[in-house]
Amino acid sequence: MRKKIAILGSTGSIGTQALQVIEEHADLYEAYVLTANSQADLLIRQALRFQPAAVVIADEARYQYVRDALADQPIQVYAGQDALCQVVENSEVDIVLTALVGFAGLRPTVAAIRAHKQIALANKETLVVAGELVTRLAMENHAPILPVDSEHSAIFQSLMGEESEIEKIILTASGGPFRKFSKEELQTVTPAMALRHPNWDMGAKITIDSASMMNKGFEVIEAKWLFGVEASDIQVVVHPQSIIHSAVQFRDGAVKAQLGVPDMRVPIQLAFSYPYRLASQFDRLDWYHMASLTFEEPDLERFRCLALAFEALRRGGSMPCVVNAANEVVNLAFRQEQCQFLQMAEVIETTMLRATFVQQPSLDDLFQCDAEARRIAAEFIK
Ligand code: NAD
Ligand code: MG
Which of 2, 10, 60, 241 is a plausible cystine mate for 34, CB 3.0–4.6 Å? Predict the structure, then answer.
């Protein structure tokens, strides 16, 4: 029996790589549901090729277009955010890959967990916004969450076969394209410069987050919830070559790490196949010609976003949700040249000060916190 996979965000960077994995292992997996926000043409091409049972176009304005294109196919076509939740609940679906970007991932992920699905989690924003709630729900519903984020997959792999407690997580970071930039130089960087990541080819939002290091801050929060460790036991280490994808230190001082060529298909595939590893044709490390592996301390002065994420985690409650919402606003504003690179942290910090704080937010509270923080951040940019 092939496992049926629902890919939320099949047209994105993670989504398209997941389809490569499925194609490579067509004897084991099938793409059962494909979804996109607005890239209708790519979604249609993917549907014709992979013949899923259903597709969802989140942007309702494009529904008719997609439906017409697939009219002679045995493929259900849906539109809207609610449909994302409904398709993952389908009893045929085995695995839900959350490869959509931002807060929009929260509701469908919760729906998939409540439907007891195996979650291959790429959408880290879900755990940033609602880590406590989502991990508790996953426990109650016996819905395993398998990390797709390369660092978290590395930590997960380092923990395979281990029973002992974690002493410390070593979360590696490439440092992004501005690792060596001075504060003065950071003042004038452009979106085009930020979008050129040295090691990874990713979607625009996460690439900007990598340049500001907010991505690493989010990954600290993600690691806390996935592995049940305190923020003080997570050490961020800048490792520009992105060969060591992260590591775990145990109580005897032993450190286990996972290494490899930077390629997201490795963690995607493992999130599907765990506890087994499948063969792959992906590039192998070339030990004789590898650049040297180097390590640095992150600079929280130049990369304020990382410090703000730690602060949000320390405050807990709704604060990470506020930071995520403000970050989504500034991230887009920076890409649209409505906000300078260093202003992103300023706006986020101001939003943290002004937003209503909720200590034990429910799912509904989080939607309100998200909306309020977006308003505050957008006003402040103006
Ligand atoms: P992307 O921008 O390339 O793709 C995003 C996908 O989500 C697209 O298919 C898009 O249509 C869909 N989408 C966007 N907004 C939506 C909305 N409001 N409703 C429904 N669908 C929507 O992004 P990506 O780089 O593939 O990243 C996806 C997620 O994976 C993010 O949470 C990111 O942080 C995480 N992630 C990505 C990488 C990577 O290498 N790209 C690595 C680690 C984690
Ligand atoms: Mg990562």
Answer: 10
